[in-house]
Structure formats: structure tokens, C-alpha cells
Amino acid sequence: MHRPRYRALAERLRAEIAAGRPPVGATLPTEGELAATHRVSRHTVREALRCLAELGLISRRQGSGTHVTAARPQASTYRQSLASLADLLQYAKATRLHLGPAEPVVARGRLARLIGSAVGRAWLRYAGLRCDAAGTPIGLTELYVDPEFRDIERHFGERPGAVYELIEEAFGVAVDEIRQEIDAVTLAPRQAAKLGLPAGRAALRIVRRYLAPHGRLLQAAVNLHPAERFSYVMRIRRETSR
Asked: Which domains, and CATH codes, for the chain?
């Protein structure tokens, strides 16, 4: 899975800071020095430093340089509020989903039940990692897309947004309803490793099924979010009589 250069540099610098190189209170090299050392552009360095600043690892002041303020990121939890399609779009735009290549699969048994598919129906499976604005992994995602929309993968990464929105724009097929199920699970070793966590951690599994007006399943998404990095917020209002 391709990672942007700035994110790779941010992770490298984050590991060095965690190892005490440089220690808390010390000053980082200048942007020019970091660019030369790591053979990247100054723009890449600036974006990497922005990620570190959002994690609370460094502070930047014009005229006084960049200082290490913490060896470990401050604990934070991504909060998602969902009451409408607009909220879901905002979530997709506020985070980044990095998807791998398509894998043809056929829905049978457990998979068919999980995504609400007819048994024997073909899908394209895309697996990836969702990160917050600072580059911290907040979940694993598996997308199941109707093969009719295969060309949509050309548009992945062009701009932030939801995949179903790309399908609507490219193919003119509107999503009329999203059905969502949430349950509690524990992370398997392979899943936990991708998130940088120990196996067995608690997680939320959120399954969303995207339906066309006549009930046709266009896309399904299976999301795994570790409990310590994600919380789900829902607002419920009392109905009032007129």
C-alpha cells in the first residue's frame, strides 16, 4: 500500500523522537537540514512536521525553531457523529482512507451474511487503513464494490470523500439508504498489528450497506475501530406532536 512521503517521514521522525533522538526539550534540525538528510523536498518536511505538531510531539515558533515537547503522542480519540449522509461525507473528508488493489471475491457463508449480499454474488474487495488528519491509524476498512463500478478505483485518492459519492458522480446511481450495524469485537493478531496495537484489544465493528432506491446493494463497508482511538456519537431527539 502506497504511503505519501510526508507520512513516511513523519513516522520516521516520530520513532526517532520516541528513542530520544533528539530528547524532549531539544531543537529539531531546520527544514533545510531535514530535507537534505532524508532526501525529500521542504514541502514534504513541512507536512511531516505538521503531523508531529498535531500529535503534540513538537512545537513550532517562528524565529526560535522547532522544539520536541513530548516523546509519545498525547492520547486522543477520534469522535464520529452520524445522523445523516452529510455527516458521513464529512467523516470521509476529515479522514484519509488508503486502499489497496482490488481483489475479486464471491459472497458465500459468513461474508454473504456480514455484508447482506445474495449468496454467489461477485464483488470487488478493497482493503485499507483509515487515518485521522495527523496520520494516526483509527481503523481498518474493507470495501465491497459491485464489479460494474470497477473503473471507480481510478478516482481513489484524487480528493477526500466517500467512495459511494464517487460512484454517484461517475455512474449516476444514487444511494437512497444506508443500513448500519454496530457490534463489539476483539482485534485478531493480524488486524492489531496493522494498527500498531496488541492482539485482543476491544474494537467497534461498523458495517454499512449502501442501497439504491429499489434496494439493490451497491457497496458494503466493514470498518474496525479500536476502542481507544474511536468513539461513536449519535444524537437522538424526542419527537414532538403538533
From this structure: 5-68 (1.10.10.10), 78-233 (3.40.1410.10)
